[in-house]
Design brief:
It is built from eight helices and six strands. It is α+β, with helices and mostly antiparallel strands and about 170 residues long.
Amino acid sequence: MGEAFEDIVNVPLDRIGVVIGKKGETKKLIEEKTAVELKINSKTGEVKIYRKNGEKSVLARQVIEAIAVGFSPEKALKLLDNNIYIDKIDIRRFSRNQKDLERIKSRLIGRKGKAKRFISEESKTDIVIYDAYVAIIGRPENIYLARQAILKLIHGAPHSAVFHFIEKRSEE
């Protein structure tokens, strides 16, 4: 193989097809843009990353992890930009049980997706809620704002108060 083995990312089985893409397009795109070779086991969800040249293999891992938590490949590939990052919040840390986890996720999504959409638009970030995670892609200062709003909702703040908070902060 010649390349140096770098890393393994475990992708949920329901997301492995997204990492591969139609006719392998997403896999090829990640390989081209990050100078890696990916070996994907679609039965276990294991993605092995072999680096061809050093620094970009870290970006390959981030892109794959972003797809694994629910982002589309297009949004995940934004991580290849120097000023774009990903932040993940494990909601299980704030919930007592599965019912509580579902309640928190519902608050974060809001009626007809309004809460998630509003926070995303006002903070200029991309947000997904998948399994027990909320993930945010954006510039550091925008991620910080979105994270603050999300944590307020998780801790029970009224939606109206969180919307007011984020509107005020995004104007600054």
